[in-house]
Amino acid sequence: MASTFLAVPLKKTKEVDVTNSLKNFISSNISTIDNPEDCTHEIGEFNKLRNNAVCRNLDKNEGSLEILYRYYDQLDVMDTKMPFDETHVPQAFKWKSAFESSSLFNFKSSLTMVNGQFEKACVLFNIGAMQSQVACSQNLDQDNNLKTAVKYFQISSGTFNYLKDQYISNGKVQNESLTPDLSIECLSGLSALMLAQGQEIFLKKAKDDNKKPLILAKLAQQCADLYSEALKFMNSPNLKGFWEKDWIPTVTCKQSFLTALAQYFMMQEAKNEKKFGEELSRISYALDSLKQAQKQAPTSQYMNSILEKFYSDPDLLRAMEVAHQKSLKENDFIYHERILRPGELAPIQKAVIAKPIEPTFPLSGKTEFRDLFQKIVPIPVNQALVVYETRKSDLVNTNISKLRQATQNLNGFLVALNLPASLEDIVAPDLPGRAGSKAAKEFKKIPKSLLTKSNAIKKLGGMSACTLTMDNLPQLLSRNKEILIEAIRILDEEKASDIQLKTQFGARWVRTPSEKLQAPLREESRKYNQIIEAAIQADEIVKSKFEQHRNIMELLCGPETELAKSIPSSIGALSSDLPVIKELKELMEKVETIKAERQTIEFEFQHKTSDAQNSSDIINQKFMKVYSTQGKINEKDISDDILRKTFGELEQQALSSIRSQDDLMELIQVANMIFVQEKSKDPSFDAKRRDKFLQELASAYDTFMEICANLKEGSKFYNDLTPILLKFQNKCSDLCFARKTERDELIKDMQDNIVSQPAHSYVSPYGTDSGTNINIPKGPPRPPPPAFTGNPNPIQTSQAPNFYSGNFQPIQPQQANQLNMMPLMPSAYNPYMNYYQQQTYPVNYPYAPNPILPYPAMQTNFPSAPPSNQFPPLQQQHQQQPNQHNY
Q1: Number of CB atoms found within 10 A of residue 80's CB
Q2: Contact 13, 93 (CB under 8 A)
Q3: Which residue of 5, 203, 404, 513 lies most exposed, with the fewest beta carbons within 10 A?
């Protein structure tokens, strides 16, 4: 039975391992997954699923369809989570044409693309093909098998039609070099062919049930028209010679045979209605069509197989001949009606029973399908989470920066008034006498507040710790610059290779140009370069400020005796019982209270994420619920509502603290004026020179603490930037590796096509070699290899394996130590963001406390960077181009 129908062959592919590419994408883009190793099992299951679905021989049964369904559904779900393309997971997929004989007629026999939609299209083609094979494998002697066959022919027709409309026609898979089996003409022809075969089964069932001749004629005519439509697409000039050798004869034979059946059944209807002229005309038409079908049959036994196994009437030709002779004799002797030509006969109405059934998703059913990556959220949800985190970080950083700036303004204000040091330069009330007394002469020269500041600096390590941190910044900067330079070098090499191949092959080189494909990465590298340049300027600001106050800061870090000697003497005496002094002391206590409250507010801002209301799981659930119900996320409204509930009270506290500072500073200003007037009443109390020096010391303390904070933020900034740049380098490497795989496959296909062409069909642009039309460029004879003497030299970075060479292997950590370079981590393209942007920070904090990624970038929670001494600087691998990049 199977020999009377045509089953579509499956497309073939080869195994791929997506482990590294998926892990790298997860680590760079999925903020809900802390460790990509947590997905190792799921990725392994995905690899196994693909290999079972498309890389091994499948039986022609519904179990094989379930495997294909599940793999396609998994790909469909991954489109929203981890799409396979150049900008997300750049994995190359190679698929061969379903019709292997097409290679004999110079059709493209295979195609490699870095495109998940291409993978889905090929899988969907195989689903339609397997549905046709399942239908053809049914034994049609039983009604249940008839239903199964007609169902899968209709579903196969709908699958090919859906593939044509949703993937090829709308440009999801758009490539000039697609294999012909994915062309619109081929898919349209296969869809019509499957529908014709399904209609033919309806015709068989109706004939077995002894339906009226008119019904059988209508069914047969519709079937013949479907075969005719399929034949029209199959005979398209673009597909000439593409099909297997027996396909065109089989479809042509079926079209003629079904036309004969339609006319034969219509002849019986005309006979019943006593339309003798029409009866003779139609039996003549039917007999001619049947004889034509016999001539068009692919084999001599094909027609016998159809008549005997399908229509249970092996003597149909004899029956038609007998009927024709009888009708002709009766008409000659009795009726004398004119025999109409086929074009003059009334067209037979068609009964459209078989219809394409387009697939419903998920193909394996909503209850049966299980997503392997359930814990990974869709990209729109992940992007919403990233944008929410960005909004939250911006809100937190902005409020903290306002508080720090207000505190800095308050400190500067107090330094200008020499407070609280000037309050401590008075004689305590329990000391007898006034100016000139022994107690006054023994008055301690270093104010208590100044001693507290000096001790605080010493606890932080003093100048030595500050200098050490500052000296480490250039090394951290150099490491990041070298990683970025190496990433750009990889892109430059790939681009140069693509330009060279485009020049060599011309119009035959049809893949996407590197310049266009690398544009997002180039823009990203420019952003990183701007970030590094801004960091260099911040380093210079910190260094300049450090040098400006170095001497006075060293004095604060020194022994108390040296500090006391350096402070100018000024002996005066004021009673601490004065109202203004008491008022100033109370105001200074309020200053300390405000500072303590701000530290608490800042701590709350930084640690509010531990609140259950603001946890990532709850935010994720909110976004997932909206996305699942609406298909989109209004991120701004949801984020604003959550942030208002989470940080609204803290923002009010921060605003209130800043406002209260303004009122406090006015009170301090007035009280200090009175205090200064009181001091000026005693001529022996000359504190101008001393006050000025104390102001310098207080200012030096504030500067030291500010520089320490800047250096800490700068070190953290560079260490946080390192893994980001390494991931960017991996993105470049993975893209170039995928392009290399695509390039190699394309070159191989072009070479195979050239070899398969007849000698006269290829004319080389370089001319011809003797005895052949294929040019073999000739060059000078190869010189002998140089003699080697002496000991082998240590390995050099210039001898490191080229990324584009065939024997490229990832550099291992132990090799990296020998090469004094950062190892390239083997992974896939990780497009975790489109660009990188710093937030606006106060000038006294030149570094961003945390790298902030703006919408629509994707943000990753990177682990804490190791100490800088664990990152040896990258050695320039291509010393012949040292000035290729300006950084």
Answers
A1: 15
A2: yes
A3: 513
Round to whole Å and give the CA distance between 306 and 302.
6
pLDDT at 452 over 80: no
pLDDT tens, position by position, 660-715: 888 888 888 888 888 777 766 655 444 566 677 777 777 788 888 888 888 888 88
| Residue 373, CA distances (Å) to 32, 77, 82, 380, 632 in order | 12, 9, 10, 15, 20
Indicate the Cα dihedral angle 603, 609, 612, 618, nearest 10°.
Answer: 170
Using 50, 70 and 90 to split pLDDT, how confident is the model at 513?
confident
CA diameter of the chain? 161
String of DSSP letters for 804-816: TSTT--PPPHHHH
Task: Extract the tokens encoding 64.
Answer: 């094989």
Mean pLDDT (the chain) is: 77
- The encoded tokens of residue 645 equal 């509930």
Distance, in Å, from the CA atom of 253 to the CA atom of 295, rounded to the nearest integer, reads 8
Closest CA relative to residue 871, chosen from 714, 725, 711: 725
The fold for domain 399-416+575-614+632-681 equals: Four Helix Bundle (Hemerythrin (Met), subunit A) (1.20.120)
Number of other residues whose CB lies within 10 A of the CB of residue 639: 23
Q: In degrees rounded to 5, what are phi and psi of residue 93?
A: -125, 130
pLDDT at 429: 42
What is the residue-wise DSSP string for 287-315? HHHHHHHHHH-SSTTHHHHIIIIISS-TT
DSSP secondary structure letters along 844-881: T--S-SS----TTS----PPPPPPGGGSPPPPPS-TT-
pLDDT at 328 over 60: yes
Q: Is 13 helix (H, G, I), strand (E, B) or coil?
A: strand
Q: How many Å apart are CA 39 and CA 46, to the nearest integer?
A: 11
Q: Report in angstroms the alpha-carbon separations of 504 from 112, 501, 743.
A: 20, 5, 13
One-letter amino acid of 175: N
C-alpha torsion 690→691→695→701, nearest 10 = 60
Is the per-residue pLDDT at 846 higher than 60? no
CATH number, domain 1-211+232-241+356-376, options 3.40.50.1820, 3.10.20.310, 1.25.40.280, 2.60.120.260: 1.25.40.280
- Can you give the residue ranges of every domain in the chain? 1-211+232-241+356-376, 245-345, 399-416+575-614+632-681
Least confident of 13-27, 345-359, 637-651, 863-877: 863-877
Report how far residue 536's alpha carbon sits from residue 848's, in angstroms, rounded to the nearest whole number: 13
